[in-house]
Amino acid sequence: MDALANLLLGFSVALAPVNLFWCFVGVVLGTIVGVLPGLGPAATIAMLLPLTLKMDHTTAIITLAGIFYGARYGGSTTSILLNMPGESSSVATCLDGYQMARNGRAGAALGISAIASFIAGTVGVLGLMMIAPPLARFALRFAPPEYFALMVLGLAMVVFLAGDSMVKALLALLVGLWLATIGTDLFTAESRFTFGHAKLLGGVDFIAATVGIFAVGEVLVNLESRAGGEIVKLPRGIRNLLPTLQDLKDCRFAFVNGSLIGFFVGALPGAGATVASFLSYGLEKAVSRHPEKFGTGVIEGVAAPEGANNADAGGALVPLLTLGIPGGNTTAILLGGLILWGYKPGPLLIQEHPQLFWGLVASMYVGNFLLLVLNLPLVPLFAQILRLPSYVLHPFIIGISVVGVYSVNNSLFDVWMMALFGLLGYLMRKLDFPAAALILGLVLGDVLERALRQSLMMSQGDLAIFVNRPISATLLAIAVVLLCLPALRWVRAWRADAVQREG
Question: With the CA atoms of 135, 139, 141 and 143 taken in that order, what torsion angle do they form, in degrees rounded to the nearest 10?
Fold first, then answer.
């Protein structure tokens, strides 16, 4: 009854005209930010934070949170239509989303993305409301060894997804991990692999690498294979551009999978939506009746990662609001905002400021509904982008890529890096190397290295720390099993061939 009374209090706050208006503004702005590569919710919230000082604090947090989870909705649009992930959490969506667009099902992919985001976002809010405190206490049990094991599991998952290309996936992953080491050493402040170039001291820019490998690389491949005309053929009629009842039936497990994994991983400070989306995608492929079709344009391959990266938003607010621990750049800025307004995020926040907490929770219900209402009708409009002829679409993609990459640091160097990674992406496609493995290695490399070195400092160099702790040992065991499964399939295939030859 207390929870119901608190939720009613929250809705009385969220549905106030001024809060409803700013919730709408926040989710619309977040969607736009998600569509545009390079900007990102963290930078947007940082720029808008000074403007919230004269706003009501509850209204301000509702607006900024709307930008945060609204960007997750928008990020799928360019990933599906243009193979251009604006954030690392959208990389997994490209694997099947863009292939669905190439197969003429861009509308269905966009629609199922919006539906999965709504369901998972709602689950994330329910989790934030009901199990935030106990889950936050469990998250405190994650020390550097557990985070190292979780990152290893995420990397093992992307190798497992490669199937027959396991060796190539491992090589791409190693290249990504090496790229993550470029820059300044985390502990000694010494430069590594910069070759005397000051621009590399901050490391390889993620946006430049991702946009180059996926978007520019895809343009180069298309230029080689197509002389002109439409990139893909789209079916006529709005009904044919939206998910069917069969699509919804096929995605029922993906909705649950993405929601639960996304929320749980999101509640772990530092884990991030990237790990959540790949874990969800991998689990969906592992339980699928047709795993061989993943990567060719199956709708479950869109629903699972999109659900995960949206549920992650609700999960990420758990340690922020209940413990005062931010899990990433965006939540760190939100923490700064709360402190700036005079609040102390932690166990007493819910009791001392129920209007703020429950108003935020209820606004996320409202915001997710607004995002569904906004995004589904726009599916046919977004899909029309693919009707553009290649001589129009390709310069458009390159133009957006250049503007997006340049705007991050106002650096032409990043644009040249994008071009270099674009060439790398083209070569990887030609040689059938999985680009997702390289990107995941680049994204998780810093976190993995930090967790490894902190763990070894805790144990004074004893590697047994990873197997002596139950959580880390379990996660590493799962990672080993995932890496061994393809080898077992190869052994079985070899034995079957041997038996057949003898017969």
Answer: 180
What is the C-alpha separation between 350 and 121, in angstroms, rounded?
21
- Which of 120, 79, 427 is CA-nearest to residue 253? 120
| 234, 241, 242, 422 from 237: Cα distances, Å | 9, 7, 9, 35
**pLDDT of 265-320, one tens digit each?**
877 766 667 778 888 888 888 778 888 788 788 888 888 888 888 888 777 787 77
The DSSP 8-state label assigned to residue 295 in this structure reads: T
Please tell me the distance from the alpha carbon of residue 112 to that of residue 147, in angstroms, as a whole number: 31
Secondary structure (3-state) at 255: helix
- From residue 2, how far is each of 6, 14, 35, 363, 495 by CA, in Å? 6, 18, 39, 19, 62
The CA-atom distances, in angstroms, between 311 and each of 69, 128, 261 are: 9, 10, 8
Residues 342-380 have pLDDT tens digits of 787 766 777 778 888 888 888 888 888 888 888 777 766
What are the boundaries of each domain within the chain? 2-502
Can you tell me whether residue 191 is helix, strand or coil?
strand
pLDDT of the residue at 133: 63
Neighbours of 457 (CB within 10 A): 11
pTM: 0.72
Give residue-wise pLDDT tens across range 109-159: 888 888 888 888 888 777 777 776 676 666 667 788 888 888 888 778 777
Residue 470 has a CB neighbour count (10 Å cut-off) of 10
Residue 172 identity: A
Half-sphere exposure of 394 (CA within 13 A, CB side): 19
Q: Is the dihedral of CA 390, 414, 88, 486 positive or negative?
A: positive
Furthest CA-CA distance within the chain: 82
